[in-house]
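Two entries, shown back to back:
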Amino acid sequence: MLMGFSTSWSARRRTLYSEAAYALGIVALALGTALMERADFGLSMVVAPAYLLHLRLSRAFPAFTFGMAEYALQAALLLALTLALRRPKRAYLFSFITAVVYGLTLDASMALVALLPGGGFAARAAFYLAGLPLCAVGVSLLFHTYIPPEAYELFVKEIAARTGANIHAVKTAYDCASCAVGVALSFAFFGVGHFEGVKLGTILCALVNGPLIGLCSRGLEAAFEFRDALPLRERFERKKKR
């Protein structure tokens, strides 16, 4: 069973299939982002530009959702990556499919979270404190699957591989660039000094997100043995190189 958890007696860990980790990771990441959006303390630097794009364009086009902004921006990022490297890969297409799946799940999560009661400071703090670790768990789960990730993670990996730079340094540079873009879009769309999407919660997320993801990954690896339920890993690995 794809979602099955079978006991591994030798390692005293349960088996979590990587395909299930992909699905659970998408749901956890989308739900965590929706909770942080409801808190309105600031989103992560990575998703802030897409959120600001959604806020601005939804004024003229109410049907333009946060999820749509996510995969529209990721499509542009994949196009920029293709032009920069001058070598399109099939993995980019699968990465976009992941972005669309995530975007649809995000919109569903936004609708679900909107039904939750509470608008005071305590409720908002609870939403943020629930959303932040959920996002970390989602990213950790996605790290344990062979299915191509969203464009954000793929962009960092590809640039690091092409330039030979340390991937953590590239990730830090990308996060800083995303933060700068978020601030610039907030000022451009809503006026200088008016912050939307990028707030104090964004800074807190930037400080704790990396260590929190590492902690979640270690916890998952201690509790589960990740295996493939479907014989697709080699196919995806070949397509990543094309």
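entry 2 starts here
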Amino acid sequence: MGGRRVTRGGSSSRWLREHFDDPYVKRARQEGYRSRASYKLLEIQQRDRLITPGMTVVDLGAAPGGWSQLAARLTGSGGRVVALDILPMDPVPGVEFIQGDFREQQVLDRLLECLGGCPVDLVMSDMAPNISGIKAMDQPRAIYLAELALDLSCSVLAPGGDLLLKGFEGEGMEELRRGLRSAFRKVVTRKPAASRPRSREVYLLARGCIL
């Protein structure tokens, strides 16, 4: 469910070469970030000032913790970051972590219990399905996870809160954008430089929850 897992099959050698030659992978190791995905959020943060001190943030599909790590630094000692993933995640200072499958009601209930009714300022989702390489299977799964993130956002966000979620251009994306526009004042698409150029991956930033 988390955003960094792929079933690679026979392309594993090529993927590994690309991965270890990737400038963002090297930079993450040098600068102490847990993953290259940190730079996607960092670029969006620099452009849109999404995270500010004192905010409450929920990070879905958090492992290995790159986004949570950055969010904890940006929200500071007065903020709160609650992270969730189906995979285990090493502790991140200032981050509360729940391990479980977001699609299961009992896991969602644990997340809501952890929040304790406190309004959330930002929901971030880097969730993606395990990629099979079969677009007709992968795309609906990705849209489904994005829709789940939207549903959660509508129930936990404070008025005016924001949602940042991963999507893949293709079938279902325009319907997803319409759903976001019905719940938020503004919806924009971001393609960070750290997203691999050949990937259909984009990030939808929905600002100003109105529900």
